[in-house]
Design goal:
By secondary structure, the chain is α+β, with helices and mostly antiparallel strands. It has 2 domains: about 190 residues; about 35 residues, no CATH class. The protein contains 6 helices and 12 strands.
Length: about 230
């Protein structure tokens, strides 16, 4: 049994309980089967950190598929376990191998949904809403082979009614992105909240089911109600 560390605002006790109880067996399995040494989850609300928890240390089959072709010829980067090697962790690979802790990932989206500033450029409320509200695609993703919805460069909650393992339940206003192995970062401008979940070893499976329970606990703590695969404000 590992020890949960960090801080959790009393309003989000459900998140702490989920992290400690639901994740105890999951973390143990990941440590034994995947060699992981830790995972972390962070949430900001109105620009302040309300959840900052961690456990442990803080630190494709068809070769002709679109996914396999997209990951081909990456000098071994797509080989199982290669993501965790020092030479790949220190390399600059566009659209891949972003390295951050949960606090930094949540802070990235906080800059958009609360601070409304990126790289010295101020964002208007219209800019923020447009990032997540304008859907550019809604269909079965040919790369992942599962239903998906996309805004302007950001992922949206999985289509209502879908109950696949890849479902991450958010509100309609939320936007962000999921990562390999189950990590994710999202911001929700409607409730000025951001969240980030990371683990310290990357692997090939999305494995969002247990990590998604933390997002559920956050929305429950905010008083939202679940309708299909979306959380709705009261």
């Amino acid at each position: 049994m590992t020890t949960i560390h960090g801080y959790c605002d009393s309003r989000f006790q459900a998140v702490a309980d989920t992290f400690a109880d639901t994740f105890a067996d999951t973390f143990a399995a990941n440590f034994d089967e995947r060699g992981e040494r830790g995972a972390a989850f962070c949430v900001t609300l109105d620009g302040e950190t309300v959840v900052d928890l961690w456990d442990g240390h803080r630190t494709p089959a068809d070769p002709e598929s679109i996914r396999a072709c997209a990951l081909a010829d990456l000098c071994g980067y797509a080989e199982p376990g290669a993501w965790n090697l020092p030479e790949y962790l220190t390399a600059e690979i566009p659209s891949s191998n972003g390295i951050a802790n949960a606090r930094a990932l949540a802070g990235l989206y906080r800059a958009v949904v609360h601070d409304r500033a990126l790289g010295g450029h101020k964002l208007s409320a219209y800019d923020v809403i447009r990032m997540g509200a304008v859907r550019s695609a809604t269909s079965v993703d040919r790369f992942f082979g599962s239903p998906s919805r996309w805004a302007l460069g950001f992922a949206k909650a999985t289509p209502p009614g879908d109950s696949s393992q890849l479902t991450l339940r958010l509100s309609e206003s939320a936007f962000g992105h999921q990562g390999m192995g189950g990590s994710y970062g999202f911001g929700d401008p409607a409730c000025r909240m951001s969240m980030g979940y990371v683990m310290n070893r990357m692997h090939a499976g999305p494995a969002l089911t247990p990590a998604g329970a933390l997002a559920d606990a956050v929305y429950q703590s905010l008083g939202h109600e679940r309708h299909d695969s979306l959380w709705v404000a009261p």
